[in-house]
Amino acid sequence: MANFDAEFDASGLNCPLPILKAKKALGGIESGKVLHIIATDPGSVKDFDAFAKQTGHELLESREEGGKFHFLIKKS
Amino acid sequence: MKKLAIIATKGSLDWAYPPFILASTAAALGYEVQIFFTFYGLQLLRKKLTLEVTPLGNPGMPMPMNMDRWFPTFMLAAPGMQSIMTSMMKKKMKDKGVASLEELRELCLEADVKFVACQMTVDLFDMNPKDFIDNVEYAGAAAFFEFAGDSDICLYV
Prior knowledge:
The complex is a heterodimer of chains A (about 80) and B (about 160). In chain A, about 30% of the residues lie in helices and about 35% in strands. Chain A is an alpha+beta fold. Chain A has a four-stranded mixed sheet with strand order 1-2-4-3, covered by helices on one side. In chain A, strand 1 (about 5-10), helix 1 (about 15-25) and strand 2 (about 35-40) form a beta-alpha-beta unit. Chain A is globular. The two termini of chain A are about 20 Å apart. Chain B has two domains: about 5-50 and about 100-155, Hypothetical Protein Ychn, Chain: A; about 65-95, no CATH class. Helices cover about 35% and strands about 15% of the residues of chain B. Chain B has a five-stranded parallel sheet. In chain B, helix 1 (about 15-30) links the parallel strand 1 and strand 2. In chain B, helix 1 runs parallel beside helix 4. The two termini of chain B are about 25 Å apart. Classes of the chains: A alpha+beta (about 80), B alpha/beta (about 160). The interface between A and B is medium-sized, with 14 and 11 residues.
C-alpha cells in the first residue's frame, strides 16, 4: 500500500458514518495529504468512489484485504 | 453549490433516519441542506428524543424470530409491545454499527444543515419551542419554497 499521512478506522460503522467521519478526518489534514480509511461496510466501496467524484478529492486506491476495505484519499 | 431541500413529516424511530442520513451525507458532499420539519416530523427536534417504532400497520417490518409471519396482528397492539419493539430495534441498530439519531442530528448541525420548524404545527399541537434543540428556525410554507424553489433535489419524507 502506498504511503499515507493520516488514518481513520471506520470498522464496524455503517452507512453513512464511514463517509461522514472520513469527511471530518479530511478536514483535519492539509491539501495534498493522503488519508487511509479502513471500513467493514461493503456499501462503502461504491460510496467512497461517489464521495471522491462529488467532492473533488482523489481516490488513489480502493481495495479489499482480509475482509476489510481500504481506501486512500488524497485531499484536494 | 448544490442544494437539497427535505420535508420531514414522520415522528417514528425508523422514519427519523432518512432525513438525517440524507441531510448529513449531502452536507458532507458539499450540498447546502435545509430540512423543514412539519407535523410529526417535529418530534425529531426535541432535545430528548423518545421516538419509538411500531409494527402496527406495517406488514413490511421484519421482526425477531420471524414474528411478522406467525404472530397474530392484533396482539401487536398489546400493552408494552411498542416499547419492546423499540428496544429491540435500538439494540439491533447498535449491533450493526448504525448511528444513533442523536449522533446523526449532531453531525447535521456540525455540517451547517439548517433546521426549520413549521410554525403552524407548533401552534396546532401546542408544542413548546423550549423542548426543541437550539439552532431551529420557525417559519412557514412560503419560507420553505424560497429555499426549495432553488434546490437541485427536493424530498418529502
